[in-house]
Amino acid sequence: MKYIDEFRDAELVKKTVAEIRRVVTRPHTIMEICGGQTHAIMHFGLDQLLPPEIELVHGPGCPVCVTPLEQIDKALAIAARPDVIFTSYGDMLRVPGSGRDLFSVRAAGGDVRVVYSPLDAVKIAQQNPDKQVVFFAIGFETTAPANAMSVVQAQAMGVTNFSVLVSHVCVPPAMHAILGSPDSRVQGFLAAGHVCAVMGYWEYPPIAAQYQTPMVVTGFEPLDILQGILMTVYQLEEGRVEVENGYPRAVTFDGNKPAQAVINRVFEVCDRKWRGIGVIPASGWRLRPEFSQFNAEERFDVGDIQPEESPLCQAGLVLQGLLKPDGCLAFGKECAPEHPLGATMVSAEGACAAYYRYRRGLEIKD
Predict the structure, then answer these.
(1) Domain annotation for the chain: domains and CATH numbers
(2) Phi and psi dihedrals of 266, rounded to 5?
(3) Residue-wise burial string across 101-136, b where 16 or more C-beta atoms lie within 10 A, e elsewhere
(4) What is the DSSP string of 252-305?
(5) Conformational region of residue 332, where left means phi above 0, alpha means psi within -120 to 50, and beta covers everything else
(6) Are 294 and 152 in contact (CB under 8 A)?
(7) Distance (Å, rounded) from C-alpha 191 to C-alpha 179?
(8) Tens-digit pLDDT string for the chain (366 aa)
(9) Mapping DSSP to helix (H, G, I), strand (E, B) and coil, where does residue 29 land?
(10) Helix runs in the chain, H state only
(11) pTM score of the predicted model
């Protein structure tokens, strides 16, 4: 298939890796901030092809993983109500809250449904006027336009039994938090191509300049990722600091302006807590006051839930690129997909899930 097979061409992969080996002269630590890229790297063994000078560390680019525990517990409290139909993308159902997950709520009789679009949830609300329908609106900038549009559509159609539990987070403030940490080892960034497809990358040059850290907008296929690494290594070796677009077939500098407009119409910037990391200022979105009637937290009065994380879970260090998943003492023992301590073990984009699936018990040899 076009844009799939051609970006998995083994000969081109070998040539790109050979060029990386030719260019690199000293150690470099590069972070792929997107969980989808992490899974691709693990799945295709890309990190094993790289020269030892290149270390890849994994960032907080898994929206499921960074959804704070209290937000999960709020979702669980709302979903357990008999008057509620709770809707969500499927990857949220196994994310552990303080004592259970959405699958457990459904098993106990809660009406929890998987949808493929927030507009499906609006339709369910129209079809069930005697129920309150809630959509769990999580994600980075990628999912924000559709989530915002569901609110716009519900308002336009007069659907009053629909609301959203919002837990949106944004990438640029996370980059600031990572690069501004005294423990950061990140020297270059692979920026998430799908986020940039929506938002463009006009926000990134000031960050790159402030922290003197090269950034390359990168896609998700093996050649995309290796090309992003190569472009980053070129910059590091030449002493350049730029934001380059390695994913031009999907990303422009300005991004999708209509999508940005609907985001700005419905949401406003707020401080947001990230699971395992803490509060990052101005790193999230919440509903604007004019859309407050669609705010599930206010509708169901769940704003005061304050749980505590498991002391065994080190997902926060993983999400900051300070610890590899298999470096966690609970990895594969107290924490496994069947009994996860954190979302990084069960999310489709979680770094711990990627290591458990592709690297558990694998002894890598040169």
Answers:
(1) 5-62+171-245 (3.40.50.11750), 65-169+255-260+283-300 (3.40.50.11740)
(2) -100, -35
(3) bbebbbeeebbbbebebbbebbbbbeeeeebbbbbb
(4) -SS--HHHHHHHHHHEEEEEEEETTTEEEEEEEEEE-GGGGGGBHHHHHT-TT-
(5) left
(6) no
(7) 14
(8) 455 677 888 899 999 999 999 999 999 999 998 888 998 999 999 999 999 999 999 988 888 888 888 999 999 999 999 999 999 998 898 888 888 899 999 999 999 999 999 999 999 999 999 999 999 999 999 999 999 999 999 999 999 999 999 999 999 999 999 999 999 999 999 999 999 999 999 999 999 999 999 999 999 999 999 999 999 999 999 999 999 999 999 999 999 999 999 999 999 999 999 887 889 999 999 999 999 999 999 999 887 777 777 788 888 888 888 888 999 999 999 999 888 888 889 887 889 988 998 877 554 433
(9) strand
(10) 10-23, 35-44, 46-49, 63-66, 69-79, 102-107, 118-127, 144-157, 171-180, 193-199, 204-211, 222-238, 257-266, 296-300, 315-319, 351-358
(11) 0.89
In one-letter notation, the amino acid at residue 111 is: D
Spatial separation of the C-alpha atoms in residues 344 and 315, rounded to whole Å: 7
Locate 134 and state its tokens: 């809630």
Give CA–CA dist 31/171, Å, rounded. Answer: 13
> CA-to-CA distance for 297 and 300, rounded, in angstroms?
6
Are 78 and 299 a contacting pair, CB within 8 Å? no
The encoded tokens of residue 69 equal: 């525990």
CA nearest neighbour of 291 among 185, 158, 151: 151
